């Protein structure tokens, strides 16, 4: 199934709060209509075959609490606007293709973060000191 089918199905469903399309064979770029899902609380797209970069529009999902982009086929780097997602409690991004030496995203505004997984994302440099002061972070 191509992402085009997903676009048609989501065209008029802007009040969705949970979207799990994990472990399918979706391909193509994520549809731009997903940008309108501003009430989204949870988004999971693990184990698919998408292409293109992680879209910048995810920074507009400011209500989201769980974001899981693992083994999705998407490319990095992780958008810098991810720091706007201050309600995140669970952030899991892994297996990104794309440029090496990507900077570590600024996550210090995510004070509710409980679980952080950034595996195989081509991030380089030092870990930020603020990670040690994030008191709600339990899984790193």
UniProtKB/TrEMBL annotation:
Residues spanning the membrane: none
Where located? Membrane
- Give the membrane topology: Single-pass type I membrane protein
A GO CC annotation recorded here is: membrane
Which domain of life does the protein's organism represent?
Answer: Eukaryota
User: Pfam families attached here?
Assistant: LRR_1
Q: What is this protein called?
A: Uncharacterized protein
Q: What is the lineage of its organism?
A: Eukaryota, Viridiplantae, Streptophyta, Embryophyta, Tracheophyta
